[in-house]
Amino acid sequence: MKAVWKDVVIAQSDDTVVVEGNHYFPESSLKAEYTTFSNHRTSCPWKGQAHYKSLLVNGEMNPDAVWYYPEPSEAAQAIKGRVAFWKGVQVIE
Length: 93
Hints:
Blueprint: E1 2-5, E2 8-12, E3 17-19, E4 22-26, E5 35-44, E6 48-57, E7 60-68, E8 82-85, E9 90-92
Antiparallel strand pairs: 1-2, 1-9, 3-4, 4-8, 5-6, 6-7, 7-8
């Protein structure tokens, strides 16, 4: 699977976990050169608190386009150490 934004591969892995229709990639597959800080947080009743990263590709910012659960609940341990995408990031095979 590949996560692509602005024709740039942001993450690529054969090892994704699908939860609620979202592919969670290993955090190590995320290309750090395209990510930047975000202090955005949200809460999921069954997964826990989500943290976010923004994307920066060729001078264009996509705020909070990457999310992850640094300390997921017991029910969501399968996504620990993984990241997912939204806000226009395409996940394709």
